[in-house]
Amino acid sequence: MPNENVVLKVEDVHKNYGNNEVLKGVSFEVNRGEIKIICGPSGSGKSTLLRCLNRLTRPDKGHVWLEGEEVTNPTTDINKVRQKIGFVFQEFNLFNHLTALRNIGIGLEVVKGMKKDETRKIALRELRRVGLEEHAHKYPAELSGGQKQRVAIARALAMNPVIMFYDEPTSALDPQLIGEVLDVMKKLAKEKLTSLVVTHEMGFAQSVADEIMFIADGKILERGPPREIFWNPKHEMAKLFFKRIAELYRREGQ
User: Fold this and answer.
1) E strand or H helix at 23, and its extent?
2) What ranges do the domains of the chain cover?
């Protein structure tokens, strides 16, 4: 009998690119309403893992279930599964020829077959949720990077996903724009929107995470609540990583 509280179950996921073994057996679960943070050094397989979870990249081995349905089963309708996953990428991936409102509504029309009036209401609601209702009729070229990423978050939310994936959503932003995106993500975390977040923003991670998973060398080397992981890591690679992060924060604070 599947546990209905488990939204996402990942079991022994492996991924190779030629001789490069990127993921070496990753397993974890995300429960409903849980905010789980993935962190680790560059090249450790974090983005590849997210892409394997909704089969944008096909894992070489292992299994993934979303609400009890096996995502990795070749017979699964992957397009239906992806409707349940909100994916926010590093780059905003907005349509430059569409307004913010239409960027959000177009997916609802194409994927869910909704009427334009209905999609407009949903798009406005989600723009309001991310604090951009007054920018509804602007095109991406008229928006800042932070505003574009908030539109991308609103677009993901409009599909009413059961889980949100964020792949380093602030990494393409200028430092002064990062805060507005993190504020929206904190608000959604308070709403208990089930989320899996790849990020280096450790202040954000400490404030919202139920659990932090430290990934390096293609494996989860350490996991636990934020305070334990940040202040008392056990693994040498985790100790070095968090020490460097702390030094960076100290330099930025000076």
Assistant:
1) strand 20-31
2) 95-160
